Amino acid sequence: MAIATTPRPLVTVGDLLKQLGGIPASRVRLHPTPGTATEQDVLRVLDDENRLCELVEGTLVEKPMGYEESEIACLIIRALGNFVVPRKLGSITGPDGTIKLFAGLVRIPDVAFTSLDRLPGRKRVRVALPQMAPDLAVEVLSKSNTSAEMRRKVGEYFASGVRLVWIVDPKKRTARVYTAVDRSVLLDESQSLDGGDVLPGFCLALKDLFEDPLA
How far apart are CA 127 and CA 117, in angstroms? Predict the structure, then answer.
């Protein structure tokens, strides 16, 4: 399955940045030349430079991640793990879990849950860049993430077969829950994330993500 797009001629760097979701130029790598990068370049940059990049429109886009975002991602991973692991429901990956959604499109959700039935052979994935769609994809917003970038990501996730997307905003202390590309609800910190049809019975209070655990 491919995402239907209308080719747009790129004349300037500004055109490229707009196509990628209005992201800062500092996140776009010039080598390989934008438009020519491949999945192997994603792995090469990770191996040689220990830098995480997504692959979009043949362009390597560096993944932003700060300390707070990483901590929140870890809290989500811990909560999911406490629910998923004892029940042997599937696999959980973190902010370096690189996934090929389609040929030529590589994304790295901050957190992802993939059910047992979606794992090749119903076993732990042991390749560096698996092609599969997780059931749940979570993005914890960083300063350089843009609304257009996240809209594009949400569309790609659902087009690939993702069933549930959480967009967590530490600055606003909210989370937007998508059950379809055009169906979402905004939760504030007095509410809770739940697993819906993907993880029935799972619940995580947003205040547990945003409150200072050391206070």
Answer: 17
